Amino acid sequence: MTQQTAVVSEMRFGQAINQALIDEMDADATVVVFGEDVGAAGGSFGVSRGLQARFGESRVRDTPISEAAIVGAAVGAAMSGLRPVVEIMFMDFITLAMDALVNQAAKANFMFGGRFTVPMVLRTPHGGGLSAGPQHSQCLEAWLAHVPGLKVVIPGSPGDAYHLLRAAIRDPHPVIFVEHKGLYGSKGPGIAAVDPLPIGQARILRAGTDLTLVSYGAMLGLANKAADTLAREGRSVEVIDLRGLQPWDETAVAASVARTRRCVVLHEAVTAFGPGAEIAARITELCFADLVAPVGRVGSDFIPIAFAPAQEAATRPQLEPLLQRLRQCLASNPSRSF
Prior knowledge:
The protein is α/β, with parallel strands linked by helices. It has 2 domains: 10-189, Rossmann fold (3-Layer(aba) Sandwich); 203-330, Rossmann fold (3-Layer(aba) Sandwich), CATH 3.40.50. Helix content is 36%, strand content 19%. The chain has helices at residues 13-27, 51-55, 67-79, 98-105, 108-111, 141-145, 158-170, 219-232, 250-260, 275-287, 309-315, 319-330, and strands spanning 10-12, 31-35, 60-62, 83-87, 121-126, 151-153, 175-180, 187-189, 203-206, 211-215, 237-241, 244-246, 263-270, 296-300. The chain has a 7-stranded mixed beta sheet with strand order 3-2-4-5-7-6-12, with helices on both faces. The two termini are 30 Å apart.
C-alpha cells in the first residue's frame, strides 16, 4: 500500500485521462483509440478532445454506434499487435459487448496456452448524480470483477487516473478502466513524479484507529465527509481507496482491519450482490479473530435509478445513512457478542 507521492501539477480528472492517453500514444505507436464520437467531438465528456488532431484518424477513430463491434474489433486488434484503448460511452451499454469481453478478451490468453495476450483497455463512465436515468447511471463493475482474465481499475483522483491509465495501457491483459461521470470536472493533484502505479495496490487516503472505511472512485468524497464528521465526535476513521476491484488489495485492507477491528465497505453499486459482499466476506475470513463487529456494507438501493434528482439521490449512498451505519459499527462492544 502506498502513501501520497510528491506532485508536480494540478489538473482536472478528465484532463488527467486525456494527458495519459497523449503520453502513452507519444511513447508507443501501437496505442490506438477508437469509439463513438471519440475523434472529432472529443468524446461525450470531452476526455479525448484534441487526440485526433494530434495523432490523425489512423490512430483515433470514430466508430458506428455498435458496442459489440467496437469491443470485438479491439480484441482482434490487440491480438494482432496493437494496444487499443476503446470507449463505451456509458457503462450501461457494456451489456452489448459482454460476449467479446467475457468469452474472447478474458479467455484468449488461457485458451491459446499463453501464446496470445490481449493488451486492450476499455474505458467507460459509470455512476449517477447527473439525472441521466436508469439506462445511463448504473455501476456494473461487480459483473466484470467476477470474470477471470479481466482487470478492473476505478480511480478516484486525477493523479490516480493518470498513472493507472498508463499502467492499464501497458498491461498485457485486458483492463476495464471505470471513470465516474461526476468526477470529470473535479480538480486535484495531477501527475506525480513516479512511474505508473501498479494495478491492484490500495492506498491509505486517511489514517485512523477506530474503524476502516473501504471505498473507491467517487464515493471516496463521501467517505472523507463521513470521516470528518466522526472526527468532530472524537472517532478516528481510516479511509482506504481500493483504486479498483480486480485485483483488489486484500492484504492492505486486512492489515488496516487488524488495527481498527471494525470495517465498513462503501460503494455506489447496489448493495445486493455488490462488490462489498465479496470484500466483506473475504475480510471476515481473514480477520475474524480481530473483528469486534460484523463487516458493514453501504451501497445503492436495489431499484432502477430515477431521472428525478430527489428520487435518484434517495436511492444512492448519502451522508446521514452512511454515518448511521458507521456509528452502529463503532458502538459495538469490543468483547464481541456476534
